[in-house]
Amino acid sequence: MLVGRRERLLAMVDFLESVPPEEVRALALRSTFTTLDARDVVLISPNEHAERLLLLLEGRARVCEGGRSGRELTVSMVEGGTLVGATGFTPPPWELRVEVLESSIICGVRRQAFEELVDRNPDLGMRVARLLGERLVEAEARLADLARKEVPERLASQILRLVESEGLVTREGYWIRHRYTHQQVATMIGANREAVTRAFRKLRSEGGVELRDNRIFVTDLEALKQAAQG
Questions:
Q1: Distance between CA atoms of 175 and 157, rounded to whole angstroms?
Q2: Which site among 92, 175, 187, 213 is 20 to 30 Å from 48 CA-CA?
Q3: Where are the domains of the chain?
Q4: How confident is the model over 155-175, as pLDDT tens digits?
Q5: SS3 of 120, please?
Q6: Sign of the C-alpha dihedral, residues 37, 196, 82, 14?
Q7: Is 149-229 CATH 1.10.10.10?
């Protein structure tokens, strides 16, 4: 990849946008860049998680953790231009699995290089803190759903989050831009595929959601909000 393109992609990362060009150039020279194809998988060990920030510069990926039970849980869906999980800050108790969903470019930034960049640009630390804070709020909301909601309610809540993050407005309602299998959705809400299939059936019967061409279509946003509240 040409050096100029590396710099342009780094400059488009959400929390690096206001970093001076010369700083971005220096960071690009100290970082690694990897191009991945759809269905490629990157495994991140706890030690690596603590020592290197992973930035998804282009593409889209699903960040998962297996946990001790062996059941896969989707931590987040990541679009190009941001940090993957909380890499570079603290080690998780087990490895993370990054599944590439479309052709992507990942950048690895050593923690020391990033800390030196923050020392020279203090506002950068605040931008990262805000980003991680927003992700913590979302994670806490999902945890609360797992604790007190049944699968149909958790599914409705997850669809609402997808509407907010990637919903496309149409005359009939909202399209969810990307396709998700029932198994993928199940890993997002802590359920199994069969339970998600039944939950989709229930939401369709209540008139809030339809599945068209393997895409989620929200026909009645208020009905979906009511379903999420149980």
A1: 16
A2: 187
A3: 3-145, 149-229
A4: 999 999 999 999 999 888 899
A5: helix
A6: positive
A7: yes
